[in-house]
Each structure stands twice: as C-alpha cells, then as structure tokens.
Amino acid sequence: MRPAPNPVGAAATPGPGTPVRSAAPASRLAGVDVARGVALFGIIAVHALIEGYEDGAPATNYLVFGGRSAALFALLAGVAFTFMTHRRRVRPGVEAKAAAATLATRAGALLVIGLALGWTDPEIAAVILPYYAVMFLLAIPLVLLPTGALAGLAVVLAGGLPVLSALIRPALPVPTLDNPHLVDIVTDPLGLLSELTFTGAYPALTWVTYLCVGIAVGRLRLSSLRTGIALFAGGAAAALAATAVSWWLLGPLGGYARIAAVTPPDRLETAPTIVDFVNVSPGGVTPTTTWWWMATVAPHSGTPLDLVQTIGSALGVLGLALLLSHVPGRLIGYVLRPVAAAGSMTLTLYTVSILFMNSPLDDFDPVQGYLWQVAAAMLIGVAWRRAVGRGPLEGAMSMLAHAARDRARRAPPDPEGPHDRRRGRDRVETAEASRAPVAAGDARH
pTM for the whole thing? Predict the structure, then answer.
C-alpha cells in the first residue's frame, strides 16, 4: 500500500572525492536528503516489485518496504517544515500567518498535482499526494507548539488516533481506494474528504502523527553526532520493541486466533496462513471486526504498534543517514552523492515514476524495472542539480509558497532577519536548510 533553491547544492553535497564531513551544515543537509533518497527507492520498490505471490502470501520486499517508506517520507516532511520555520517554534502573529500561508499553499499545490494523477491505476500505485495535502493543513497548528509538547502529543496521537478511527469508520462510507480525481471534488466531496481523512490508503488524521514527530526531530541539532546516534539507536529500539509486542499479543496471547474466529472462511482462504492474511489485509486501516487488529504491525495498518514501529524505522534510517554524512572518504562520497541528489527532488521523481509505470514504456520485468528506475532517479538527480539546482516541481511549489508567505507578511522577507542573527550554533544550518523543499511523494502498489 500504500516529502529551496537547491536544498543540497554543489556546495551542500560533497563531491565524490571530498570527505563528507568537510562542511558541517552541508553534511547535515546531505544526510536528510540521503534519507529522502532511501525513502524514494523504497517506494519505487513497493510499486515496481511484486506485492504478493499467487497463493496470497506477501512478498518479502512488501513486508520490508511497505508502509516504512511512506512513513519515512511523512516524517521527513515534518523535518522540512522546521527548515521553513528556521528550526524553531513559530510564534503567534505575523510569523504564524506566514507559516500557515506557506503550508496551505503547498497543500493546495500537492492536491492539484495529486488529483491530476487520478487517472493512474491504483493497483500500480495509490497516489499519496492528496492525502499529503490534508496532512499539511492538519499540521499547521503543530508548528506553533513547543518541542516538548510536540513529543508528548505524538505519543497521544499514536495511541489515540487509531482507536478514534476504528470507532468512527463503521459510520463512514466504504472507501473506493481508487486514486482521487479532480471530478470527485464536485461529484462526491464528502466521500472524498472521508477517504482522505479517515478511511483511505493514507488516512491523514492518523498520518499526521509522523509530521508531529518530524517537526520535533527537525528542531534538534542535526549537526551533532550524538543526535545521529540517538535517532538511530532509539529508532531501532522502538521498532524492535513494537514488533516484539505485536508478536506476543498475536501469537502467545491468541490474537491471530481471535481474528480468524471473526473472519469469514472465504476471506481466510485468500492467504496460506492467518499470519499472511493479517499481513496483507490492511489497506490503510484495519478491519473493525475485533480490537485484536490493533495488535498488528502489518504494512499500512495504522495501528498504535504500526505507528511506533514505522516511526522507529524512519528515525533509524534518518539517524543512520546523518551518521554516514560524518564519515570521511572517497567511497562514501561516491555512494551518498547520487542518493542525496535523488532525495533533493523527490516530488518530481515520484511523479515521473508514477507516470512511467502507467505508460507503455514500462514493459520491464519487476526487478529489472526497479533497478532501471533507481539508476535513472540518481542520474537525473545529479544531472539536474548540476545544470539547474532545484527540481522543476519543487521549484514551482517553492515559488508559490514564497509568494503566499510574502503576502501574509505584507512585506518582503528580510534574509538577515532576527532568526538568522541568533547565536551561531545553528545559524549556518538554518540559512541553508530554510531553502529546502518539503519532499512529498510516495505510494503503494
């Protein structure tokens, strides 16, 4: 199932022969873009490779990349929000109006792009961009909160929103799980809103939890080696703990048996085992036949344990990317540079991938097609960055958002304003990072 002028430009991404830690702020941004590149490649894997086998068992690549890649993108979108707000809490007043205008404009642009892709086949990829648009709107109040409150709220949202969703969804229309189209705004606006918010492939009300965590993480000192270690170790521990708790609840405590008891036999026969059935059943949310579904960490199940596991894996990947950006040597530069280049224009590359896989050009075998897309993404990323800088869709969205921000401020922004005159620990990072785009794009096969 199914997030700047040049955010990491020539000066921000080390060349193949340059030690990655040669410039601290550049390395930090390169690490974030590397994580975006990893998310993009994971999404392409979910789209291009097989999701399951003929007997109904899920493919290994789906169990690995399904859900986690999308969660990583959503969390990194939250990190990008902090880049746009100088990595600090937004204060009420003109500053808040400018931030709201920026996020609302980006949300509108993502909605237009996503609905324009509504003609594509949801069996290939469920387009996440319309869901992202709703997430961005829901996230506007989050940038006003202090970091401690964000961390506490993330815990509450992860535990409470899946339960709230399960209580509300039985009263809502059954989702079509088609890719939302422009015409749906006119023909079925309430159904569209219900699906984007509660019942669809990426229910925004639940997924806003990733943005909440991303905003809190983005305010950390990402230049610090200690931060990278903490994110990597803490994220891995959270993911492993959630997986272990899920195994204990569903296995020894009998959760699988309880789910099987309330599931029609003909549905159970669609997969070889009850474990396989539980892993392939969620389509953004779980069934509401029993509360035991809340114990699964199946891809795109949106349960409390799934949120903890996918947040943990996202933090682990981000932490590892930040750590790698500190490693000196030619080899690491050669490896990271094309990944970061692809990660700096994920909205464009995601859109191109969706269009390619829905065209007659995609006549490759799954593995071959996946490798070609990854190679093309890195080559396009490196070439475009050298020739132009910002990706085309990223550039257009940034231009619209900056115009909306300036209107909200009713005066041109001061590039040497008070936020950039703070004492020096994060000044350079803020100046570079504030030009980074919000990466947006992923989907599900």
Answer: 0.85
